[in-house]
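Researcher: Please translate sequence to structure tokens.
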Amino acid sequence: MTATEATMTKQDSKNPQAQAVSGPVWDWAAGHGPVTGALSATTGAFAVATTGAATAMPPGWALAIGTAGAIGHTAAGIRLRNAGRTIAARAASWLIGAGWTTWAITNGPLTWQALGSLAAIGVGMATATRSTNLYEEAREEEAIAAEQRAVAAELSAERRAIAEEWVDRIKRVCGVTVRVLAVEHWATGTGFTLDAELPGGTTYDQIAARAATLSADAHLPHGCTATATPGVHQGRTLIDVATVNALEAERTYPADYAPLSLLTGIPWGYRSNAEQIQTYLREQCALVVGPTGSGKTNMVHVILAGFARATDVLTFVIDLNAGSAGLSWVLPALTHQPAPGERPLRPGIDWLAGTVDEAQTMLDAVLRIGKQRKIAYQSLMAREDTDLLPIGPTIPQIMLVIDEGAEILTSMDKAMKKLAAKILEVIRMLRAMGIRTVLTALGSTGSVLGNLMIRREAKVRVALTGGEKEGMDLGKLFPGSRGLKVDQAPYKGAGFMGTPESPAALFKTWRILPSQIREIVAATSDRHPVLDTVSADAAGEAYARRWDADRISWMHNPQPTPDAGSDGEQERRGLKLTALRDQPAVQPQPSSEADRLVDTLMGEIDEQFGTTSEPDRTRPQRERTQREGLNLSALRDTPPADPAPGREAGPDWLADAIAAITEAGATGMKPSAVADRVSRSRQAVRDALKAAAERGELVYRDNGPHSVYVHPDHA
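Model: Translation complete:
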């Protein structure tokens, strides 16, 4: 074939008209049906008979070949376990065809008698083949149905055994006689659900309260529970029994970054049966609590990932801890260098506040947006006949994520109180206008949950325990839910989650990797909605200039570079005091081995009892009066002034403690940290710091277990 012919052939193969002109396409690998099989058999017999008559072929050869074919098909049918009528029909077809061929060779195949008999044989073969095929199909379907019935019977027997076992267990442990109506195995293979009917006057709470006892009685693996939840009506209950601990293994965030909608639910994790949990936040706020190390930061990133994938959500983030919760979602866009013709990346969140001032600006803008929406969209809500603003890509919902926001609401600091008042106003007033909040906290304590607004509006609640028991009062976080124990979820990222759609139960969130965050930012850049015109006008310049260089400069260099000292000069830690600037740094005196042993022993006694007084192991010092104000060691050689009337002097080490607290800045220091710093007992440090606060030298910031002392300059 020449190159021209090859080219024409290739073009014709791509041309539909050329394929249409070439005629039908025969599939020579396809099997014969009843008609084509009979046609093939009769034409073959006619050809053999014609050839045999013309060449004087012995007639017995045709009969021998037909007999061999009948025997071969009989053996094949037996091997395939065909029905007897099918085997007989196929063997008879071979023998009848061979008999006709033998007769036609002897008497001539080109007579009307021979041709008519051959046509009759063909029709008979087609009819018999069709009949046997239908019979075989019926036999196959019946065999499959019988197998399914056997499997169903086996499963039914297994379900009956499970039902009987759990009816007896519930009666023995809970004192309740139930009737199991159905047993459904989970598709994930990690457990099953019992649909049980309760006796009269009994509620599912009586079974839910004994969940731990039922789990122990069933010898379930650690992390697996038997949890009772409401059924289709109050006389029924669903008992979920986990047999495989799906929360033990770590699972990364799903790589499918498909679009989501706030109205259809956003996944935050998965239950013990490996099914995803959907959260619906159109009208609900959310509260996520978890101590340090429980995976709370990772959970915040999972929440932000779901909001970034949504086509009807804009996310505002407040994180006063240097904005760490939102930087991972902003920096990939800020550092992206688009190629020629490529659109620049949009951040994964729409606004990030890392300082108190920026948070105040954001909350003021959010309040203006909500109030303007109430006025501007009245006609739209009237046209849609709803009292809730229709949320969608054109009018997105604003989700305000506040890391450690619950602590802001309970803080006694003046600036924090202003933030708290605005946060509560957002929660209280802007539900219908599509502005909701997600707050995080370090624990489900009374100080966090003492605010009625949080308890009433935050219906989506998460407790990441990670095995931590301190500050984890699950009864306060999930009132009415019984049988929840922290030790059921000892894994990082695991805990309990409850929504209005599903009661509180075990769950675990995915592990989201930094590389996945960057991928989500890139994958969802074109998906984020734009703030509607009404809201953007209400937010004003504060929103429009949120990404200006002067307002995001801290994101590129959050930690200022310290001043470098002169050559050979060692940096002195602590306050840069005028009294010390012209003096060389004091080198610590090495302590003897005996002193170190005494310090270690006294430290252990203080840790155990906290009441021992420190022995005087230093050289005698000259008596001096206490200076009013800071007792700076740099000025101790200067005779201090007499204390003011009515004010007592503190211990000698108090000046070092106050200097350390001053160095800590606005964060302050806990009494335990101060005790470790000055090597004194915690009780003695608490008493001295309390007295210093009463004298005005320190400010006590009450925040429950996180209470600290702050210098007045940083308060």
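Researcher: Any highlights?
Model: Residues 175-242 form one domain.
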